[in-house]
Amino acid sequence: MTTARVPRLGLRANLAQFSLLVAVNALVGGVLGQERSVLPLLAEREFGLTAYTAMLTYVLAFGITKAATNYVAGTWSDRYGRKPVLLAGWLVAIPVPLLLIWAPHWGWIVAANVLLGISQGLTWSTTVIMKIDLAGPARRGLAMGLNEAAGYAAVAVTAVATGYLAARFGLRPAPFLLGASYVAVGLGLTALFVRETHDHARLEAGSHTARADGRHDHLHAGLSTRDVFRHTSLREPALSAASQAGMVNNLNDGLAMGLFPVLFVSAGLSLGEMGVLVALYPAVWGLGQLITGPLSDGWGRKHLITAGMVTQAAALGVIAVADTFAVWAAAAVLLGAGTAMVYPTLLAVVGDVAHPAWRARAVGVYRLWRDGGFAVGAIVSGVAADLWGLRAAIWLVAALTAVSALVVAVRMYETRPVPPRGARDGSSGSGR
């Protein structure tokens, strides 16, 4: 008779599964990265789209569906378990590279991005939730740094690879065959090796302790889904500040996805140079989170987020005025560094504040607002670019980012939990 596996919290106690989930999220990021260098050029050269707003319809479709699916993913993860939701996300991804390869008109590209948004919402949200489940409270920033670093480093590597493949073999089909291979490997690893983590969240809920200052006393275990939405969106200061900052952060990324390649190529850069610039920002973003995630565990969350948003705004201003590869490269590094300061830290804030019993739903609501930024970014930057030009659109997004930093500075409080002395990695008891 076999003995049931007893869950334990902490990175050391769950190293094998945590490492596997890092690899799975790298594949999730790679599926997203297959589009980053190629689609804006495909829109212009093969489908004849000239209006920036029309070109950004794929970003809009992706952002709306990913945002909505994030919300559903959190609820379903609590109801049905984490692994089934992760598997469903990989299954939805199967047609995406095929649609991108064979699309006879732009509507197919938009349809592919609807499916991509659903897939990314299910897969990326669930890997976040599963890593928070496994890590425990003491190393939440490190856990999120590793998760997001893997995903966005893969976005960057894939953007470079697809830019090279496009320059060597054409815009289709070669770049998207790489995405198809990611989907096959991700589905196989998830089906065969990933284990359910819901019991780890239940274990943490059983030993959950309130803050000494009483700030979270109203955020008890029995909140309804409606109350979770209200607290995360509006009522709870740290959660709501994180939600708006996440939306503005991905508004930046929506701008970068849709308009940066066009700006760089229109300035006379080659496809290879454009691919490097497009990849540099998510590469620094991804790898930088290996530093900023654990840094937030030691220094705290609020000031790192505020400084990161200010850094992003400054970087966008430089991109708006630059016209050479070297200056754009420096600005891309700065933009990536600012985003790395913000991205894992916002997720850690949600994990800090939300009770383990409804944390998955809070992550879903936060990611609803955060990834809604893709859609907002597509609309705002596309309309602004059509009315006033590419550089004016970038200046507008820079200003919005600076305002978001001010909101965080005023509204958010420090959420980082102080672990008990000696609790180095958040490892916790093994029993129930």
Automatic annotation (TrEMBL):
Subcellular localization(s) per the UniProt record: Cell membrane
GO CC, alphabetical: plasma membrane
Identification of the protein by name: Putative MFS family arabinose efflux permease
PANTHER family in the cross-refs: INTEGRAL MEMBRANE TRANSPORT PROTEIN (PTHR23517:SF3), RESISTANCE PROTEIN MDTM, PUTATIVE-RELATED-RELATED (PTHR23517)
Lineage: Bacteria, Bacillati, Actinomycetota, Actinomycetes, Pseudonocardiales
Organism: Prauserella shujinwangii
Any GO molecular function: transmembrane transporter activity
InterPro entries referenced in this protein's UniProt entry, alphabetically: MFS, MFS_dom, MFS_trans_sf, MFS_Transporters, Sugar_transporter_CS
Protein's membrane topology: Multi-pass membrane protein
Keywords in alphabetical order: Cell membrane, Membrane, Transmembrane, Transmembrane helix, Transport
Keyword Nucleotidyltransferase in annotation: no
Transmembrane feature ranges: 49-73, 85-102, 108-129, 149-167, 173-194, 303-322, 328-351, 394-413
Pfam families reported for this sequence: MFS_1
SUPFAM superfamilies registered for this protein in UniProt: MFS general substrate transporter
